[in-house]
Amino acid sequence: MVLDLYTDWISQPCRAVSMLLMDNNIEHQVHEIGIMKGETKSAAYKQINPSGKVPSIVDDGFHLGESHTIMRYLCESRNLPDHYYPKDLKQRAKVDYWLDWHHLNLRHGSLRLIGANVFGPIRQFSEQKIEELRKEGNDVLKSSLTFMDENLSKNNYIAGGNQLSIADIALVCEVVMLPISGASYDDYPNVQAWVKRLSTEIKSWDQANATLNKFLASKKK
Ligand SMILES: N[C@@H](CCC(=O)N[C@@H](CS)C(=O)NCC(=O)O)C(=O)O
Predict the structure, then answer these.
(1) Residue ranges of E strands in 19-144
(2) From the alpha carbon of 65, which atom of ligand 1 is closest?
(3) What Cα–Cα distance (Å) separates residue 174 from each residue in 81, 98, 125, 156?
(4) Is there a domain that residue 133 lies in?
(5) 41 in contact with ligand 1, CB cutoff 6 A
(6) Which range is the signal sequence, renumbered to this chain (predicted)?
(7) pLDDT tens readout for residues 50-94
(8) CA nearest 175: which of 153, 154, 147?
(9) Residue that is last in its domain, among 46, 80, 114
């Protein structure tokens, strides 16, 4: 049975799951769920994923959300090449470390800035709320990108090793989203080099990022 993917192409975790699926030729059916249209909160979608978030998959009747969990599940269930999620316990722990770190650091900062600069004006947040979100977002992003940059000065891939892992995929999808809220990673040369490296190594890079790139180009006009 073909795996079903529920996704919105603009979303960071959705693009990460798509990259893993596409680069490994895992047959799947894409169901687009528009976040801005409120489709993640529809009763029909909540039957698929009760948390009302994308991405989620249905694999032969098995429902699963959370991008990191989905990627781990795909690595194991499809026996993907070891570098994505190594069998070696210590190497695997390093990948898990960066996946866990992601949510309360890089993604936390990124979401605060998206809240302040993208949703704030649309949803008419108070000036005070926007300022608080912006300050926290900028502070957390600065410390997160500094930490990543230091690590990437010693390693080509975020969890070490000689090839990319699912931690690289999760984090890079967040980093390339930063310009959407006016943030950038221009001051972090090792992060920049890593993004460039991954953009050539992830075969589905252009396809997975097409909607985001179109949106970013339209903002520049
Ligand atoms: N921790 C989750 C985060 C999922 C998430 O926050 N998805 C956002 C899009 S990036 C979403 O579905 N937002 C829609 C909503 O909250 O209604 C994951 O990694 O999959």
Answers:
(1) 28-32, 56-59, 62-65
(2) 20
(3) 23, 13, 24, 18
(4) yes
(5) yes
(6) none
(7) 999 999 999 999 999 999 999 999 999 999 999 999 999 999 999
(8) 147
(9) 80
